[in-house]
Amino acid sequence: MVLYLSIIGFTWILLSITNCLWANYGIGNIEIAGLIFLGIFISFCIDGACALGARLINKKFINPFKGFFAERKNERKFYEKLKIRVWKDKIPELGKMFKCFDKSKIENKNSSQYLLGFITETCYAEIIHLLPIFFAFLLLIIFPSKYFWGISFPIVVVNVFLQIPPICVQRYNRPKLIVAYNRAKKFEERQNNIISNINESNTKLNTEDKKQEN
Fold it and tell me: How far apart are CA 48 and CA 40, in angstroms?
């Protein structure tokens, strides 16, 4: 979280300095800095609206095992080339902060139901960060055109850039979670079969005992 806030803060300071030095908007430096802050705030609001919209998607429309959410050929190699293992844990995990599903660590590797919930949550997280890439441009419409190159467009670029690493992390982690889910599911099925066989044997023994008593 500190890394993301640092990037946002650096963006605000850099844009404020460059616009104050070279832009000619007919307003003071404080107003320019405030305008840039407003643009960043509006981008936050757009991202928040996208997150709320993503949560409205019914789970029945999300299938992490095929289609859009399935792993593509050589996708993992691409993430490895980006050194994702080095920086993936630095990406902020907001699930715990907002009392949603905490994806910072796996709490129960042996529960297929828990792991399926974890996998589904990675799909929601991917959508949450994917939607702002398409809707970040709304800032360009909200802000007057004279601020396009100096303020609104750079903010949109930074906003879009910040959405890409979390998407990569979700897509990188999901295949491993699916492997763990399949393993846990097979283990639970074996356990259920054993319990079922034991119960069936006990039922037969009880039936035979009753017959002998009669």
Answer: 12
